[in-house]
Amino acid sequence: MPLPAHNDAPYLPDGLCDSVPPPTAYPLWLSLVIFLGVFAVLQWAWGEARGTWIERLVIHEATVRPAAAMIQVLTPEAKVKPVGASIKAAGGGLNILNGCEGTEVMFLLGAAFAAVRMGWRRRLTGLAFGLALIFALNQARIIALFYTFREQRSLFDLLHTTVLPAVLVAVVALYFYAVLHRSRLA
Fold first, then answer.
1. Which of 9, 48, 171, 186 is the most buried (most CB within 10 A)?
2. From CA 143, how far away is CA 151, in angstroms rounded?
3. For 61, which DSSP code?
């Protein structure tokens, strides 16, 4: 069958120029096993890091210090200081405990990317941007909790335990969906 031509130059109809077919999805049971296995291993490894320099690096340096610095920029009169796992300030501060640093959501995203079939470049790029998104959202969550604790303590528990974690997971799930279906959304 001859190829269609325009101005005597043959061309390939749409769809015929894709040299690599999109990867087929893993069976659902395999995706579930991979997801649960990767998530469990990451959670176990993080649990093993309790009390170590790794936990201190993640909580003290990568979580508390940036949040305290941002609060200091937003409200210098609060005279916020990062002290270990705490954001200290006159009028009330926050303790950032293991579980408040956003690692669980990062592990969920990592497990989700591991459980789907996609190219490595797309997978690593999606994961890198997703981890940056989680970091930024978690910092915003900590800052919001800091101000809520100081100004509206009655809302603190609801925001801390339910609303903000649900928002974080929902936004990251939407991000993952967008990355997964990027070619269909474009």
1. 171
2. 12
3. I
> In the numeric block, which tokens belong to residue 86?
């705490």
Angle between helices 164-180 and 120-151 (to 10 degrees): 160
Written as one string, the DSSP assignment of 129-179 is HHHHHHHHHHHHHHHHHHHHHHH-HHHHHHIIIIIHHHHHHHHHHHHHHHH
User: Residue 69 has which token pair?
Assistant: 């610095």
Dihedral sign from CA coordinates of 68, 69, 71, 72: positive
Cα torsion 171, 172, 174, 178: sign: positive
CA distance 101 to 94: 12
Question: Which residues, other chains included, contact 184 with Cβ-Cβ below 8 Å and sequence gap of 6+?
Answer: none
Name the residue among 62, 89, 63 with its Cα closest to residue 75.
89
Cα(26)–Cα(37) distance, rounded to whole angstroms?
15
Residue 88 makes CB contacts below 8 A (sequence gap 6+) with: 80, 81, 82
- How far apart are the C-alpha atoms of 80 and 126, rounded to whole Å? 34
Q: Whole-prediction pTM value?
A: 0.82
Instruction: Name the pLDDT band for 1 (thresholds 50, 70, 90).
Output: low
Query: How far out from the chain centre does Cα 28 lie?
Result: 23
